[in-house]
Design brief:
about 280 residues, six-stranded parallel sheet, binds farnesyl diphosphate, Undecaprenyl pyrophosphate synthetase, globular
Length: about 280
């Protein structure tokens, strides 16, 4: 079945975004502020996590419609295990329910599901549901939704070092063959390109042990919205902001392919220029 189409005003918003520049290939999100969103309303913290699932649904759908190829969500960190037992257990129940409820819809929307992290640490029923969902959706060609579960960047790098150590001992790799690309290939994200855009909600200015190796050149965007209030309009604002950035990857502006002397102004840029000139 085809991807659900955006409607009316939303479609116009998406069309504008698609015309105004590149949509990031990979967006990673630190979903933060569920507890504060709930507390502000006099509700228990879990109510924020519940509403957060609705934000997940909306953002996944909008990313699919926009042609984003990868969306990685920091759903449960290694450190989150230290939360009160009751909250951890409610979060696991909620995750299980969300996976069960959304599986068919994700599949119909051509989403491919992946998980990164210490998956073996999750309750058995969550692991089973995840494996079932990943198997069902493995051939889908739309958005790849990556759930970071029991994940942390330091866990990922430590695991990669163990893998490299094992392969060095067996003689499969030699010291001089250790390059940045090789290290990347031992990370949980080996088949996923690095994020172009990292969004964090709730205004906090921290990386919180997320994809610490992979975000070396990601553009950062901090949203003041708490995650349960973060919906597609906020995503569009983040993408529009991303489109205004100049990604130099350590080089100077003039070296970037789009700024080489004599290179024609890209059509999209030219269209924008003509539009603004006609208003003068
Ligand atoms: C951070 O808010 C959020 C989490 C630790 C969990 C995120 C989980 C969900 C949105 C639900 C399930 C996810 C999926 C993928 C279906 P916080 O609790 O740290 O909020 P606070 O900083 O205000 O305390």
């Amino acid at each position: 079945m085809a991807l659900e189409k955006p409607t009316g005003h939303d479609r116009k918003h998406q069309e504008r975004l698609l015309q105004s520049g590149e949509v990031p290939r990979h967006i990673a999100i630190i979903m933060d502020g569920n507890g504060r969103w709930a507390q502000r309303r006099g509700l228990p913290r879990i109510a924020g996590h519940h509403e957060g699932v609705n934000s997940v649904r909306d953002i996944v759908e909008a990313c699919g419609q926009l042609g984003v190829k990868y969306l990685t969500l920091y759903a449960f960190s290694t450190e989150n295990w230290k939360r009160p037992q009751e909250e951890v257990s409610l979060l696991m129940r909620l995750l299980l329910k969300a996976l069960r409820d959304e599986k068919d819809r994700l599949h119909q929307n051509e989403v491919r599901l992946k998980a990164i992290g210490d998956i073996a640490a999750l309750p058995q029923d969550v692991q089973d549901e995840l494996l079932d969902g990943m198997e069902k959706m493995k051939k889908n060609a739309g958005l790849t939704l990556v759930l970071a579960l029991s994940y942390s960047g330091r866990w990922d790098i430590t695991n990669a070092i163990k893998g490299i150590w094992d392969d060095m001992r067996s003689g499969a790799i030699k010291r001089d063959e250790i390059t940045q690309e090789l290290v990347s290939s031992y990370l949980a994200t080996s088949e996923i390109p690095d994020p172009d855009l990292l969004i964090r909600t709730s205004g906090e200015l921290r990386i919180s042990n997320f994809l610490i190796w992979q975000i070396a050149y990601s553009e950062l965007y901090i949203s003041q919205s708490y995650w349960p209030a973060f919906r597609r309009k906020d995503l569009y604002a983040a993408i529009a902001d991303f489109q205004r950035r100049e990604r130099r990857f350590g080089m100077v502006s003039e070296q970037l392919p789009q700024n080489e002397p004599g290179r024609l102004v890209p059509l999209r840029g030219m269209e924008r220029f003509l539009k603004s000139a006609s208003k003068l």
